[in-house]
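Q: Could you fold this chain for me?
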Amino acid sequence: MKTSAVFSAVLSLLTLASARSSTTSSSGSSSRADLPSTFTPPQVFKNANLVHVISAEKNYIKETINVVIENIDKAAQDEYYLPFTADQVSRLGGVEVKDRKDASAGLFAAEVVEFDPTSDTQYLRIQLPTPLKSGAQQTLGITYYLLKAYKPLPASIKQEESQFLTFSFSAYCPSVYTTSKQKTEVKFSSANVPDYTKLPGSGDIKQFPQKQGSKLTYGPFDEKPAGAVEPVQVRFEFTKPVTHVSHLERDIEVSHWGGNVAFEERYTLYHRGANLSSLFNRVKWAQSAYYSPSTSALKEIKFPLRVGSVDPYYTDVIGNVSTSRFRSNKREALLEIKPRYPIFGGWKYPFTIGWNSDAKNFLRKLSGDSYILNVPFLEGPKQPEGVEYEEVQVRVILPEGAENIKYYTTIPALSITDAEVKVHKTFLDTIGRGALVIKARNLVDDFRERELIVSYDVPFMASIRKPLIVFGSAMVLFVSTWILGSVNLKF
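A: Sure. Below is the predicted structure, expressed as structure tokens.
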């Protein structure tokens, strides 16, 4: 549980909830603005130095652009544009921009701007908090993730064969501005990178890329004009599952009377790796258990839960799955599950897990009738190969009568697509419970444990409504039974 000082600091941030709810839309992006179809980013900046780092170490791509921008216009400027293809925008998530040399500046606002729906080029607009004066420089750190980034090659493999993936990108970092100097680094989880596009070198370097262990480096390159690209492709070994969750529904139900917070998560999971070229052989799989060779099949999923979690359960479309293990002590609470069968490339596995936790671990009562709830927005598996989430729905079900519901989350704003308060009715409810429903797209497990903070009020009369209704209903039942029993039905 956070300290009271942290909770007090967070309360001021909760006022952002109303504004965020009003700016979100169900169309797919919470921060999409429209521009004229003739829009072209003004050439007011120059990239003085740029380092583009691409991490292919997990089953999603993480890209980091560290760039020194310079204002070459006569007037101060505060809008920096980054180009993406339309396909990349649909798979883009987790965008965060900051000043590399001034951490106190916080995160910069970033939004996808659409100027022509038929164009293959779309833009991410970054709003600098302070306009950059003419001739001045600023160092930006831009981080984002791309889902569904790989294609297996070959597309089908034998059960015991290694899996190889391909990834295509540009050796020159795409930019709408002139770049004076740049290089691109690509990192892999394995040093086995048998195929990659080679480019002519420059200076003392005869050929790009330079390979050092599990890293390839394209560049440094001399000045490149705006819009310059150099398509390249890499093929690398990835002997791990390519775990993709197409849809996650996460329910968090708060009970004041029970002093409990109940969690339930429903997954639709896919393996997006290489398919099997022949039927699955159960005998070979059982034999391999003795010498544990590397395999791209998903055999086990681990869920680190908050300390104090209890009563875990694990089900799939058939019913309860007994192949699970829960380890809980004062330092950890770890749920390990094993699917009914190993999940190979192209296979699907929907399942549900749930658990309970003491409300005091997440809930705090403030002055009067106010409460504040602090829970992780996303928990989920923690795997060495990583997990990507295409669609996430988080539903926080509050006690009946909750009102004045606000929220704040440290999930990147660009990933939030919708947020609204609905009514959820369950046992013994009269008016129903307030349920905060937040939808997000294109998240990865790097955002595990990012906070979701919800504040709400429960008036005293609302808090005792259910006990009064239960007591009143019982009394009516007893009185009705007594009256009926007293009626003389004899003639």
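A (continued): Confidence is low (pLDDT under 50) at residues 1-9, 15-31.
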